[in-house]
Amino acid sequence: MEFNEDFIIEEIKNKLDIQYYHNVFDDHKEIKGEWMLETQKPENLVEDIFRKMLIILQIPENKIVSQSRVKIFDVFKDKNRYPDFKIIKHRTKEKDLLIELEPYNTNIQVGITQAEEWIRDIRIGTVSQALVVNLNHFILVFFDGKDVKNKELTIAESCKLISDIVFGKKISIKIEDINKITKQFYNQFYAIIHGGVYINIKKERIIINEKDSIINNLIYADRLNEEGKVEFIYSIFNRLIFIKILIDWDLFPDISQYLRRVPEHLIHTELNNLFFKTLAVKEEERVNLPEEFIDVPFLNGGLFRKTDIEKKNQDLMVNPKYLTKIFDFLEEYSFLANGDDNSSINSEILGYIFEKTIEFRKGTGSYYTHTSICDFMCESVLFPHFLVRINDYLESIGYKKAELLENFEEIFMLKEKTLLNIYEKIIKNLKVCDICVGSGAFLLAMGNLLLDIHKRLLLLLNKPVDDTEIKRSIVENNLYGVDLMISAIQICQLRLWLWISEGSIKLSPLPNIDYNLRVGNTLLGSDTSIDISTVNYKFINKINSVHFLDKDNPELKAILTELNKGAISFKSLKLLKTTLINLFLYSHDENTVLLKDLIDSLNDLITDDADRIYLDFLKNRIKSNKFRKGLTIEFLRRLKAFHWYLEFPQVFPKGFDVIVGNPPYISTKFMEKIWLEQDIQSLGKEIKRRKKRITKLKSIKAIQEYKDIIERLKNEMDEKKELFLTDYYQEEKLYNSVYKEYLKKNYKWTYKIYDILIPFFEKGFKLLKDNKKTYLSFITSNKFLATDYGKVIRKDFLNSYQIDLLVDISMIKVFKDAAVYPIIITIKNTVVSNDSLIKIGRYKDINQLGNELTKIEQERYNNADSNYIIYIPLHNESFKLFDKLFHHPNCSTIGNEFINYYREFDFTNWKDYEVFVKHKSGNILGDDFYLYITNNDFEQFQIQISDQLYFHRKIPKNENPKSLSIPKEKWDVFRNELLMIKEVALDLKCVLAKYYANIGKIYALRIKEESELINLSNYYFLALLNSRLLDFYFRVVFWNTHLSGGYLNYHFSYLSIVPILRINPDSNLYKRIITLSKCLEKKYNDNIRLLLELLLIHAHFPKDLKIETKKISFIDNLFGKELTEEGVYKLIKQTDKIKNYLCRLSEQEYYEIISNERQFKD
Question: Roughly what angle, to the nearest 10 degrees, separates helices 591-621 and 727-746?
């Protein structure tokens, strides 16, 4: 709706006695209470109209804070007047909006002066702006960073401002469109390293042969496997990309031309000088460096320390000729976020490179998460956590219940002393971990959110604000991450270092975050304290020899005494390692390398003992001989066991405050395959595809090219098959099997063929502080909310935790090229209460994320009869209809009443039976053959086969290479009249079929002999199983199992809980339903279908939808008669006559709810 002056005037006229129109609209006099139709205060009239505007703008009530609430805030307690109410912002980087209302036709300056007084108070002005309204004028009062200003807005501008604050500014994000230049960069990056084809920025197609790739042109790399080679190359690339980005940001001298001039035989030496003797060494300590490196800053940080591979392979290098290719490649691009030419690229490329690297490395089930998703999730988990901790603190210092905060933004209204204590005790001490950190997208989002909170608080506290120092502090003290892949941790470190550097005037040394971000297996390893029983004397000598430790400190002195006795308790170990890590974090001198060496030595010592202890624990858990031979120290090392208490002593035993992330999604049925097997399988498919393609080629040249490629692929496959048979890879396969068994035995939520994300949830909660104030938030596959394997975890979630947020984003293409349909779930680590509410939402557009969330009682899902399924309807009204169906007293379920037949001849190798399908031979239908039907051969009610094939009982031996046979009991199944349902479809689709056989992708149902519904016609069930009412029910409960494009899997295990209405077979209603069902089988008609849908709703809820019998009595003329073609025609004609009546009936509430829920798939 468009708001303008006419709207205001019309609303005032509706409340004003007509005799005073002239006084108000012509003479512009101030309205008096007695002039109105119902006497009220003049300012109340303005509030009523303004609130009506908010309702039309669809501003939720929870975004409007009343005056009675505003006045309790500390910052307003010393003010003469309070705002009439406050509108709460949607995103952290916006400001709240205080509303000051004045009577119509009064001098608005009074209100402006009052609003300016509020905004001038830095505690208010930095987080809020004000809108002064008397309906003649709308004046915005705001702080511009220097002074308080005001400007007049139109009505439309005011409404847009309010909408933008509440819902967020409409920034168009097309998540499926990753910048073309970013893809181009990666393709070139990959081709240079591994060989391949790419299009350069001049749009030329470039081919790099494998023999000319960098990975095949390393010198002294014989001892490295492919993974080691990739790690070495990536470490060089990471350093060069980092330097290139800093050069483009004008934070680093442009040394690219100098490096190009260096003779080839010296380039490796010169790069090592740059990395390890310049960037890693303070300016005053550098020696014998070229003039061009004089202005290169000291950056410190692990990026410019040698990796383990570089330490162990001192001569390892890239062939100098190929190093220049890397320089050329990077020079083609400009790392400017807002560049507008075709070579500009956002530094977000690092996250994209990580995602594509995972694809190359195979099988982890990990995906890179878009920044807008990360931002939303971090807000959804961090604000509730801070809110509960801050309110606990406020209660402890005497705040009453009514004075506690209702949302995080109210923190900025507290008095300065209180705010300072909250900042020091709560905000600065936050511990956040991403337990599957990937490229660090969530840590960056969390860092940005914390940066914004820190800056706003420091401004209110009149403390200096230095973005770089705040970022550094956040990275060092608040953010932690673990990942299985070394390349992930390297890129995560790189991105955090870039984040610290971005916006700096001058670069300062990078923090040492090696022990905040760790390589390890999140799921394998101890999460409890371990005492170290044997201490290596080499380590004791090493720690005794260092000079920079304060050995007079009583605690450290006691630890050293304990160490010298050859053992160390967990308490002492924690203190020692924490002390060393804290020294390392802030070390920028010659002690840095010594500290790193000391901590690594301590880690080796810890790991050796911890592994032995943990291995004994595993042997007690896993008793099967099949797996015990794989339970070795090598198993733990190969799978990168990670002992949380020992790796993060600065966090444990207390634990983390918040865990956030994107855990891998991969079914455990695929876990035993190692990457080499996946490669062999992929190569086999590619060879098969190319062989099929070669038969269609006509060009001799093209045919020969294909033959050459096929030959090369065969050779590669043979090499990998040979490699797979070596001891190393056979051991790896064994270890994968042991790991799978370990997960099953060690995690209580693992059930049936589960997804690997299940143990990630369980581990996440184990790592949180146990104080009922901590939170976990994951973006993860939606399947566990409805599938069998998720039953155990769902039950525990609903009974033992408080689900705070559940958002379905499965229709947004969040993860490119991945068949994953994600949800966002945020859970509080506390037992659910009777009044716990879950905020739920479902979105197609990422720009709407977080808007119009519905609050639903958690208890509603805690139902064993529905397998604790957690569903997310599109509309709040859907719950009403769903509950009525779920609790319907006259409903049974499909599972109780029907037998299901599926892949009758062979469940696994069902496709083998396609040999029995051909054109008809034989004589007797049912004995020699059946009509053959596939899932493509029917729609709702009707079988539609253009070229009928037949399924034969027996076939000649030469056509049956596997000597398959069909048992009589399986054959006889299809003699029955069956209700056949498509396995995968956009809607529930059913036909009635007799003497039709199928081998897969169709569920065939038959009523049980003992069912009380045995006397009902299959045409009644046909009507139900095509109805939008039952499809609505299925869609609500099992939307979480949907496939690409909104297709649903109508699996019988899901269908089994769908309700089936018991109906009186003698009733006219029943007879009308089966008559219309028969009609639709013969000829589909929209009006007949609509009438049938309405009759079914009426059958379920006769009091809620009433149908005039006289209007539809024409159906009764066909009772008990065979429905001929003429009868069908008459029925359609009669139904067409009541079309308008049916359309009016379709406006009934339930039918509209059904229609609205279906819209989401469209």
Answer: 70
**Is 958 a domain residue?**
yes
Q: Which two tokens stand for residue 74?
A: 């500390």
Dist. CA 215–CA 382, nearest whole Å: 43
CA–CA gap between residue 1014 and residue 664 (Å, rounded): 47
Give CA 1151 to chain center in angstroms: 33
Burial of 923 per CB tally in 10 Å (0-12, 13-18, 19+): exposed
Contact 413, 77 (CB under 8 A): no
d(CA 822, CA 784) in angstroms, rounded, equals: 11
Lowest-pLDDT range of 24-38, 59-73, 878-892, 1084-1098: 59-73
Residue 441's CB is within 10 A of a number of other CB atoms, namely 27
**Shared-domain flag, residues 208 and 305:** yes
Number of separate domains in the chain: 6
The verdict on 963 and 834 lying in the same domain is no
Predicted model pTM? 0.82
CA distance 1024 to 1092: 10
Is there a single domain that holds both residue 792 and residue 650? yes
Whether 746 maps to a domain, the answer reads no
Token pair belonging to 52: 């009506």
* Three-class DSSP category at 726: coil
Task: Give the model confidence (pLDDT) of 245-256 as tens digits.
Answer: 888 888 889 898
Which strands, in side-by-side order, build the sheet including 802-808? Answer: 517-519, 479-483, 432-434, 658-661, 775-781, 822-828, 802-808, 837-842, 854-857
pLDDT band of residue 347 (cuts 50, 70, 90) is low
Q: Coil, helix or strand for 421? A: helix
Q: How many CB atoms lie within 10 A of CB 695?
A: 7
Position 467, amino acid:
D
The DSSP letter of residue 624 is -
Q: Going by C-beta distance under 8 Å and a sequence separation of 6 or more, which residues neighbour residue 1004?
A: 900, 901, 902, 973, 974, 978, 979, 980, 981, 993, 998
Counting runs of H as helices and runs of E as strands, what totals does the chain give? Answer: 43, 31
* DSSP code string of 751-767: -SS-BTHHHHHHHHHHT
Do 860 and 920 fall within a single domain? Answer: no
What range defines the domain where residue 615 resides? 537-631
How many Å apart are CA 956 and CA 954, to the nearest integer?
A: 7
CB 300 within 8 A of CB 592: yes
Residue type, 1149: E
CB-CB contact of 133 with 102 (8 Å): yes
Place of tokens 């040249």: 701
Transcribe 133-158 into DSSP letters.
E-SS-EEEEEE-SSSEEEEEE-HHHH
What pLDDT is attached to residue 227? 81
* 730 domain-assigned: yes
Structure tokens at 73: 């805030």
Whether 974 is in a domain gets the answer yes
Per-residue pLDDT averaged across 256-270, rounded? 89
* Identity of residue 1123: L
Query: Which amino acid, 470?
Result: I
Token pair belonging to 574: 């924690």
Single-letter amino acid, residue 1093? E
Contacts of residue 653, defined as CB under 8 A and 6 or more positions apart, other chains included, come to: 529, 574, 645
Cβ atoms of 331 and 260 closer than 8 Å = no
Dump the DSSP string for 71-115: TTSGGGTT-SS--SEEE--SSTTS-EEEEEE--TTS-THHHHHHH
Q: How many CB atoms lie within 10 A of CB 807?
A: 24
**Which two tokens mark 25?**
């609209």
We report the CATH number of the domain holding residue 657 as 3.40.50.150
Point out which residues pair with 808 in neighbouring strands. Answer: 823, 842
The β-bridge relationship of strands 822-828 and 837-842 is unpaired
Nearest CA to 193 out of 131, 239, 249, 236 is that of 236
Burial of 1154 (0-12, 13-18, 19+ CB in 10 A): buried
- Asked if residue 361 has pLDDT above 50, the reply is no
In this structure, are 654 and 550 located in the same domain? no
